[in-house]
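User: Please predict structures.

Assistant: First:
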Amino acid sequence: MLVPVEYDEVGNILDGHHRVKICRELGIDWPRLIREGFTEEEKWTHARQLNIARRHLNQEQKRALIADQLRQTPHFSDRRIAEMLGVSDKTVGSVRNELVANAEIPQTQTVTRSDGVVTTKQQVDERRRQRKGAVRLYAGQRYDRIGEEDYQRKDGRWTKLDVYRSHCPECGKPFEIRASRDRNAFHPARRCDEHKAQGRRIRCATIE
């Protein structure tokens, strides 16, 4: 047997129960590897990581392991659990929604990211929207994507432009802009048509 059985420092098997059973039935010894310094939570996570990485699990079996991890650490973000287990954060989110709907885990208001930072679920969702292009920020001003429209280029070819809505920092009124989907070419207007003036500093509206 080439893959050693993993134990914690007090002799509990972390990985390799089936290998130990087979070796005992055959009357042979087996290689051992001691893992020290793990918390109980880390021991379970380590075992699940090995299960997903080594075994040919189907989708249902992977979701079962993700569900076990979520039951143990519901406060961990979907991305953190995905990185721990080597799966998609979308799959983790889907399993989380099922467990919340069945009241198996609580609907958490805060989550712990991979870097240990505790943040709110709303902040996590907002960052996801920004990564997907649903929200863009330019010079601290927010632009929400509300749709798309066809655009004919000078060479006659058709392309898509994203339509964004923002609010004029001087009067607070909403206005729309059209922008290319190239994330490196986003230089939108910052004011509505009424207050548009190139080169003039932005004056924030007073909200009463």
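Second:
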Amino acid sequence: MNRASPMARLLWPSATRRSTSVSRGVRPRPWAPSGAVVVRRWRADPERQRLLDEFAASLGPAEFGELLDGACTLVYMYMSWMRTVCEEHDKDVVEHIVPTLVSTMRMMPRTFRPEVVPMMAGLLIAAGSGLSPNLWRAQYGPWTDAEMNPLEATVALLAEHVNRMSGGDQDFAIRLITDALSRAEGEDEE
């Protein structure tokens, strides 16, 4: 059973592929205490990483800006969906969702350095309040290199949270976006 998030499966299928208990990296060790499990770290496929690096190198300033806009749009769409769900249950999305995500970010210090957590929290709060994360972030100047991985991870955390809120459907967040894209294409054709 593959427990990787849909976003991770989409972006890194080779790093999340698991078929047996040994290939999952979970293997009992004779020298370990009874019931202990040793988990092996996974590395991305070198060929896939090379292709991703080539793609990133081919992006010009305009395409890179569009990629950032797309990531912020995903943040906005996921937070809008969560805001709707929270309002149906008389809860505030900022109060209910943001603290959980920020505490998760703080548990991931390699991805979310302490100085970028407030910026990612601000993006979540802006989107949860109905503001554009792109416009909110623009007031602080251009994006920094230190914010790129946290932005990507924030989108993945949001997708995972949407999946959990939907009742555990591991593809719900992806379907939410693809359905919105399909509706937008249908409106453009009319």
